[in-house]
Request: fold
Amino acid sequence: MRQQFKVYLLALGFVLGVTLKALAEEPIFTSFDPPGSILATGRDINSAGEIVGRYLDADNNTHGYLRSRDGVFTSIDLPGANLTNATGINSRHEIVGAVRFPGEPSTTRHGYLLTTDGFATFDFPDATNTDPQGINARGDIVGTYTIAGVTHGFLLRGDQFTSIDFPGASQTSLHKINSRGQVLGGYVSADGHGHIFVLSEGEFRTIDLPDGLAVLPDGGINSRGDIVGTYCDTEPCLGGGRNNHGFLLSRRGDFTTIDVPGACQTQAEAINSRGDIAGSYDECGAPSGFLLSRAERDEEED
Reply:
């Protein structure tokens, strides 16, 4: 299936933000909020340490943002849209996300790709909702789409869409894709439980957490095969739930819980090739973004 792109030009406006500390041997935690925001989430991080996500302003308008490695924020808004978020960024600084236009239902989303040429919007054919989540260095885009109330995963390569469903699942979503073409996704099984999986070379592999921990349908995978995500203490697992904890599952199988001290909930959304982790947390109030920086080492493309 092929989809025609709509192209919009964008003039980015830069806003001064906070500055990251120099990276050290021990992980460094940095909390951040775009200037003027009342809540923010961190959704992806590339090999250069650039983070994208969304924030809500005092008028309850949703914007995307780009946060540079030095802590400088750029708001991302598609001209004419009344909602813009940013969910994925690659090593070429290309950004994907979703938008909604005035007069459309609150559940409607259209995908976009933002490059140096501007915005290009796209929709999975006949879908009521198209929601990109990740993009790799080759420009492959993954995400979710909805038709007749059922959520499916998609891969967009060039202008060719591929629909992806986990076998036997009632719902499937795709979260991130790394430079090796490995896709991290989630699905809901027939018993109503959520799971995550890795799709590699056409083969699905379910990822089970220790002790049968329930998992949210989100997270990220880097080029090394390390995975981050969010689990909850009790089901159902809900985004923003008070019993949510981030986790890191290394390619070697080591499992580590990620909790921001004093927070009611922590969600780990993305990990880059250096091992830097981005996500969100809240202290029983509005969420903020966070960055967990790792020691310096050789970079790879995400």
User: Anything to note?
Assistant: Residues 1-25 have pLDDT under 50 and may be disordered. Residues 6-293 form a domain with the Neuraminidase fold (CATH 2.120.10.30).
